[in-house]
Amino acid sequence: MTDENTKKKFLYLNRKAPFGTIYALESLEVVLIGAAFEQDVSLAFIDDGVFQLMNNQDATAAGMKNFSKIYRALGDYEVRKLYVEKESLDLRGLTVGDLMPVTYEDEDENYEEKPSIRVVDRAEMAKLIAGHDVILSF
Amino acid sequence: MTDENTKKKFLYLNRKAPFGTIYALESLEVVLIGAAFEQDVSLAFIDDGVFQLMNNQDATAAGMKNFSKIYRALGDYEVRKLYVEKESLDLRGLTVGDLMPVTYEDEDENYEEKPSIRVVDRAEMAKLIAGHDVILSF
Amino acid sequence: MSTLHTVNKSPYERNALKSCLDHLSAGDLVLLIEDGVLAARKGGAFAQVLGDVGRSCKIYALNPDLAARGIAVGDLVEGIQTVDYGGFVDLAADATRVCAWL
Amino acid sequence: MSTLHTVNKSPYERNALKSCLDHLSAGDLVLLIEDGVLAARKGGAFAQVLGDVGRSCKIYALNPDLAARGIAVGDLVEGIQTVDYGGFVDLAADATRVCAWL
Amino acid sequence: MRFAIQINEGPYTHQASDTAYRFAKAALEKGHEIFRVFFYHDGVNNGTRYTVPPQDDRNLQKLWSELAESHKLDLVVCIAAAQRRGILDANEAKRQGKDGDNIAPGFRISGLGQLIEAGIESDRMVVFGD
Amino acid sequence: MRFAIQINEGPYTHQASDTAYRFAKAALEKGHEIFRVFFYHDGVNNGTRYTVPPQDDRNLQKLWSELAESHKLDLVVCIAAAQRRGILDANEAKRQGKDGDNIAPGFRISGLGQLIEAGIESDRMVVFGD
User: Fold this and answer.
1) What is the DSSP letter of D41?
2) CA-CA distance, B108 to E44, in Å (whole number)?
3) What ipTM does the predicted assembly reach?
4) Are F18 and B64 an interchain contact pair (Cβ–Cβ within 8 Å)?
5) Domains in chain B, start-ordered, CATH in brackets?
6) Phi, psi (5° rounding) for residue F49?
7) With an 8 Å Cβ cutoff, are C85 and E23 in contact?
8) How would you classify the pairing of strands B117-120 and B82-85?
9) Domains in chain F, please, with CATH?
10) pTM of the prediction?
């Protein structure tokens, strides 16, 4: 299963805002469990999915679980590719500066901290979808 | 409860297509039970709610319950006011001719069959909402 | 005699906000809750229309839902007021009826 | 090497169809199922865009879902083909991957 | 003022039950009355005692059951919606020949007439859903 | 060809389970293999034996249980999602101190790893949801 050749490319397609529905949280739970399977994992954030990465989320007053810190921990699970669509950010008046910092330590470069979030345009996102073996939609 | 003065005006606000979700069917189930309470009842069909009244629905091949005939029986339950929004029909390329005939027998006019469906424009729909006591949304 | 309209859906995903705004009567109130508060952020695609509607109808956003989604009160479209759950109750009590755009 | 995209939402209510169409690659297939078939009716607001997309990507609609919603095959936007559940299976098998726009 | 509340979605999947709970709590704290909370559609799934949410998350069923106990709230689960979704009390289980029930404390199963009655008897009906 | 199916919504409220069932049936009739059906989110609610749908409607739980029996289908209910929503088997009931269980015949409760494994082991993953 650790052989590069037998790895499958998994894409998690996140299109929904957090909190209004549970899909964002339960998508993350799959990502965490899936990390143990050592596949090639990417997360895509399209449409309202980009709101999942908003900085300074605090659900305390709404009485809900604060799970946004889990995104920040994804690097520790070897999940390092979070693709965020530029057009989706633009429509919502957001920039990458409105999103939480998500990083990983690159063991090949002296454990330097590198950003996991990569802003891509719609055409690149379409290519990303076309380049994966398994697409899990939330 | 049959005193005109104690009647409340109930509006059922139907905005969703049938079959993809259960809201249309379970909204109807409330209407049927509610009819026994002898309140002043109106049904509003806005947005995809207008698809609930499409003629010739047949869910057999999809394995679902054919409930569209219940709309036709509403007249027998004294439910006679089905308001369909014109702008919602227009956007979907529909006319009242695409909808099923829903009628009631008018006991004041020799049991003449009269149409229950009334096409209203958006401004009239807004007035309708503003003129009801209880709005049940589906 | 006014209606409190609640909108709990993202306007980017669904047509509920648009439909609600299309059916307001003069003096009505709109309360954005749950994912509906996503409409209220300055710079978003619905900022303009909410600003326009806000001149004739009062628009509110539920603060706990804004906070959950990382939207600061300073980031709201001008004229939108925030309420907490108690304020939601007051709005519902003061209105003549509540209409939910689900 | 193609993707079968499934859309199960009404385009009048949600942005799923639009988002799907914005992310197609050449040779991809789109299958409208459940409330998604509401897009396929001639004369509706999405007839034009589906006709346009249909020139570069094949578009299908699930016939049992059309029938449930009272949409006759003769009322479909030109170029949209219908399939039953077996045809859905064939499309999924023939494509390289399936992408659901929920 | 007398409120009635309708909840159309189950716990966790949609925020509807959370918002309704906080609305109800705030209304009671302000001295209002809640005539009834009616659980319809998937809302009936709020009324199962079989849930075990993660320990760092809220337990919506417990929150409702406790609010019902402390304020004598009438929590009604629609019988027709409950039958479709597998929420049973002891009576229903017996009537339907099922070997157990799962209704949570403070909830009762009854008919759709209870929703209409709530609309008639309350000053404001507030609906929470998807 | 080997399919895997993910179902994200409960029965009746959304059509997802209906469509997935008819897809699975058609695939089997064409000689394909279904490696696994994984029930996630509200999809876990397909796996309760407590449902009693109206007699003139389909019984989705029974349809799935029968398809599982006749084709040796592996129907897996996600444990984390099931805990939030009150779906229990005998083991889980015991572990969580609950007084009963409601899992339907042919369904089993297991972890999210079963979904990933299904993605790895199948040729096509097809997701049905809201």
Assistant:
1) B
2) 42
3) 0.97
4) yes
5) 9-137 (3.40.1260.10)
6) -85, 0
7) yes
8) parallel
9) 2-128 (3.40.1260.10)
10) 0.97
